[in-house]
Design brief:
The structure is a single chain. This protein has four helices and five strands; from the N terminus they run αββββααβα. By secondary structure, the protein is α+β, with helices and mostly antiparallel strands. The chain has one domain. Strands 4-3-2-1-5 form a five-stranded antiparallel β-sheet. It is a multi-pass membrane protein. It is found in: Membrane. This is Epithelial membrane protein 1.
Length: 161
C-alpha cells in the first residue's frame, strides 16, 4: 500500500510540474518560415525574439479563457496535492481520499476545457507558415489531462490502510 501511495504521489508531482511547463512555455504550436522556427503559446509568439501573441478581437476571449483554465488547473492540482498530504496524516484507517479525488477531477475538467478551447480556436493560427504542428506544451497538456483523470479516480477508490 505504501508503494501505491508513493507512486500516486510521484505521478501527482510530475503532473503539477508538467502543468507548470505547459502553461509557461510558449511552444503550443510550431511552424517554420524563411526566418527560422516560429512557436506560439498561450502568452507569446516567438521567432528570434518573443512578442505579444497577436490575436484578433474575436479570439481574445478564447485565449483569455484558455489561459485562465490552465492557471486554474495548476491551482487545483496544487490544492489536491496539499489535501492529499493533509488527509494522509489525518484520515483514519479505512477512509477514502474523496476530497482529494474531487479536487483532482476539477483540475481534469479545467485542463479539458482549456485544451479544447485552444484546439478549436487556435490550431489553424499558423497556417501561413510551413509545416505547422503542435508543440510539446500542447502534448504535455494532454498528458496532464490523462494523468489528472487517472489520479482523480485512484484517489476516489483508494483507501487508507
Amino acid at each position: 500500500m505504501l508503494v501505491l501511495l508513493a507512486g500516486i504521489f510521484v505521478v501527482h508531482i510530475a503532473t503539477v510540474i508538467m502543468l507548470f511547463v505547459s502553461t509557461i512555455a510558449n511552444v503550443w504550436m510550431v511552424g517554420s518560415s524563411t526566418t527560422g522556427t516560429i512557436s506560439s503559446g498561450l502568452w507569446l509568439l516567438c521567432n528570434r525574439t518573443c512578442d505579444t501573441l497577436p490575436v484578433s478581437s474575436s479570439d481574445e476571449a478564447s485565449l483569455r479563457a484558455t489561459q485562465a483554465f490552465m492557471i486554474l488547473s495548476i491551482i487545483f492540482s496544487v490544492i489536491a496535492l496539499a489535501m492529499f498530504i493533509v488527509q494522509l496524516f489525518t484520515l483514519e484507517k479505512g477512509k477514502r481520499f474523496y476530497i482529494t479525488g474531487a479536487i483532482m477531477l476539477v483540475c481534469w475538467m479545467c485542463i479539458l476545457i482549456a485544451v479544447s478551447i485552444y484546439t478549436a480556436r487556435f490550431t489553424g493560427m499558423m497556417r501561413d507558415f510551413e509545416r505547422p504542428h503542435h508543440g510539446y506544451c500542447f502534448i504535455l497538456a494532454w498528458i496532464c489531462f490523462c494523468f489528472s483523470f487517472i489520479i482523480g479516480i485512484l484517489y476516489l477508490v483508494l483507501r487508507k490502510k
